[in-house]
């Protein structure tokens, strides 16, 4: 069924269900909202569930800040089997009878904290000579990806149902692949393994407490369509500024707001609720707020602030 397109500005924090790609999930919510423009912040595999921030309209300008944010995952490793995709979808490529003791698992986690070098999975969206690695891997080609540094902020064992499985929670930085963590931890323990369950709990400021399900959205479409475009607790649409709450805020006048929207730099303004220190670092990104709301993101340049992203939310 066709739906008209309308201007929708804000975020929907979707609890993505099993079996959908991130693009498919975005399409379903975009259709429900009738939104003219949308994007998602951080891809989740079809076999993964959990937090998928969806940006609509002007919120899409803030997507880079969400994609770069730290993320928290809960996942289970199935020991004894390694697969092509490093999850339950792939074909088995290696087996092992070794099953690590719980004490050994906990001891091995120490090597997976801080900055570590990680080789991304062959089945990933990384480009190799202009082609996606997963396309090359599916075509049967050998994919050699270089190791790259990633940040692991915390990594804990949270449960052990049996000798074959262990469940973990990890908070990590941009570009970290949980499937690669499972591969490398398993190998460090003298066995092999793959991810058999993966759930994302947080992306930057977006957590499970903000999330809505596709079933809930469908219910609103059928019974209370106006609430699709209102804020929680009744509706589902969060303000654009929600994704930028961790960025220091500066208050600007109406005149400054007009200058920023025209792409012009302004003099360093005052602060909002003392959220910016007296001395703001050079080149720091700040959030510029007028009485009516979010105006722009700017970069500090000496006594000036220059706009880098302007939001049209009038």
* Largest sheet composition: 9 strands, mixed
Distance between the termini: 31 Å
Order of helices and strands: EHEEHEEEHEEEHEEHEEHEHEEEE
Strand percentage: 25-35%
The number of distinct β-strands equals 18
Q: From the alpha carbons, calculate the radius of gyration and give it in angstroms.
A: 22 Å
Helical fraction equals 10-25%
Count of DSSP helices? Answer: 7
Q: Which overall shape is indicated by the principal axes computed on the Cα atoms?
A: globular
Structural class: alpha+beta
Taking all residues together, what is the mean pLDDT? 91
Can you put this structure into words, describing what you see?
A hairpin with a 7-residue loop joins β2 and β3. α1 (22-33) packs parallel to α6 (214-223). The chain is built from seven helices and 18 strands. The radius of gyration is 22 Å and the shape is globular. It has helices at 22-33, 63-67, 102-108, 133-138, 178-188, 214-223, 254-261; strands spanning 10-16, 38-40, 48-56, 71-79, 81-83, 92-95, 114-118, 127-128, 131-132, 148-162, 165-172, 193-203, 206-207, 249-251, 266-267, 285-290, 293-301, 304-310. Strands 1, 2, 3, 4, 7, 10, 11, 12 and 13 form a nine-stranded mixed sheet that branches. The protein has a five-stranded mixed sheet with strand order 14-16-17-18-15, with helices on one face.
């Amino acid at each position: 069924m066709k739906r008209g397109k309308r201007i929708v500005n804000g975020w929907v924090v979707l609890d993505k269900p099993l079996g959908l790609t991130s693009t498919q999930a975005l399409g379903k919510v975009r259709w429900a909202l009738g939104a003219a423009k949308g994007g998602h912040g951080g891809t989740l595999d079809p076999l993964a569930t959990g937090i998928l921030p969806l940006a609509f309209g002007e919120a899409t300008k803030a997507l880079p800040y969400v994609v770069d944010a730290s993320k928290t995952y809960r996942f289970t490793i199935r020991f004894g089997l390694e697969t092509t995709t490093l999850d339950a979808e792939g074909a088995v490529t290696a087996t092992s009878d070794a099953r690590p003791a719980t004490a050994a698992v906990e001891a091995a986690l120490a090597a997976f904290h801080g900055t570590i070098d990680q080789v991304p999975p062959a089945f990933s969206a990384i480009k190799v000579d202009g082609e996606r690695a997963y396309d090359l891997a599916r075509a049967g080609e050998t994919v050699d990806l270089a190791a790259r540094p990633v940040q692991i902020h915390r990594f804990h064992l949270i449960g052990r149902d049996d000798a074959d499985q262990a469940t973990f929670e990890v908070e990590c930085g941009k570009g970290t692949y949980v499937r690669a963590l499972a591969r490398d931890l398993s190998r460090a323990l003298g066995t092999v393994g793959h991810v058999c369950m993966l759930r994302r709990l947080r992306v930057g400021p977006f957590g499970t407490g903000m999330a809505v399900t596709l079933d809930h959205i469908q219910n609103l479409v059928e019974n209370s369509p106006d609430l699709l475009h209102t804020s929680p607790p009744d509706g589902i649409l969060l303000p654009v500024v929600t994704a930028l709450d961790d960025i220091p805020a500066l208050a600007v006048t109406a005149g400054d707001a007009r200058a920023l929207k025209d792409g012009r730099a302004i003099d360093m303004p005052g602060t909002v609720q003392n959220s910016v220190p007296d001395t703001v670092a050079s080149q720091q990104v700040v959030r510029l707020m007028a009485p009516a709301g979010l105006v722009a993101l700017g970069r500090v340049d000496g006594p000036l602030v220059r706009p880098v992203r302007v939001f049209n939310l009038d």
